Amino acid sequence: MKHNREEVIIKYLRSLIYRTMSVILLFLVLAILSKNSTNYKNIIAKNLYEKQIPFVKIKSLYQKYLGGLEPINKVIDKEEPVFNEEITFETKEKYHDGVKLVVSNNYLVPIISEGLVVYVGEKENYGNVIIIETLDNIDIWYGFIKNPAVKLYDYVKKGAFLGTTEKNYLFLAYQKDGEFLNYENYLK
Amino acid sequence: MIIEFHYTYIILLFSFVITGYFPNIIILTSIIIIHELGHYIIAKLLKLKPYRIIIYPYGGLTKMSNLVNTPINKEIIVSISGLFFQILYFLLICLLYKHNLIRPYIFSIYKTYHLSIFIFNILPIHPLDGSIFLNLLLSKFIPFRLSMYLNIIISLVTGAILIIINYNTFNYTTILIAGIIINYLYKYKKDLPYLYNRLLLERYLFHLKYKCTVIIKNQNQFYKEKNHLIMNNYTYIGEFEFLNTYFKGKNIKNV
């Protein structure tokens, strides 16, 4: 029995060493490649650091071809507190990459479109930002948000409560594949 | 104790990761593990021999290496304890939610998974808790072999009804689960004669004695937790003598 246990431990350690070595090897190969040519460096930086996994897109594909992820979906009635409002604002003006809306003081911000929260945190010029990836693969940025009611990787519904504004203005931006889109096509 | 993650579970986790359902992974896994630990802990307390936990999508299995002749009441307690622990866990979550320590979003996920695993586990289909409970209850009143066959029939009928009801709402995970269940049912059907033989052999080897005695006609009608008198050509033979002649000439070491 004791002999057997030793064998198991040796086997485990061996596989662990193999795995760590292969990760180190992969890292070194990438490092050497990126040092030798700037072309490779750009490709690696673009694919590893800038691209995000399109969770929502994969989810909608999954839903379409493989069915949902919840096993007994019918049984459970979904009672969620829906805040259910649309954004109302007084004026709008262009601000950096998006649009700045003038709203009432401590305005309660509703979510424009269903999706997944992919970023919560500070960004330059926009204050506290929440980014929501929607079903049509557009990232919507909500800037100057105080006390967010959502957290990272929450699936949120349209019209649900997002947070309050810091002062009397709200920032919105629409981004697709890393490029900002013209807000006038989306905001009416 | 060994906790083993079945490869179907790894597939499910992978699909959770690529669709961005990160909180769901922790919630689902914690519910399943607490459910199985319930079986494990209670079985240990009752001095049964659990040795391995296998985690499947939407449920797990605790494997035990005890006698077939373990007292029915003990096994019933073990079969219920999983759901009992799961309910306790959910009540704890409810308490935390009432004191605003958990967000409504996380609580709704907990509720969904708790309810679906609960409903799934009380179905009378073979490896699930509901069927084990039903089988044990039946084996109190009818012969053991018959109760096992009834168990298979009940499992197939419930499975067929579920398939007919949910014909349109099939998804990938339900197909995975159905595959696992069919595999287990097939193994159960195949091992049934051997399991029954173990019941007889344990009686023969350990001289088990019970309060109740019944009269039966052949070796296929043995009850659990009862002693027997076998009627053969208007003569009655005691259980041990009968088993002695039954196993005579058979190679017991290989059984």
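qc> The longest helix of chain B spans residues 172-206.
qc> done
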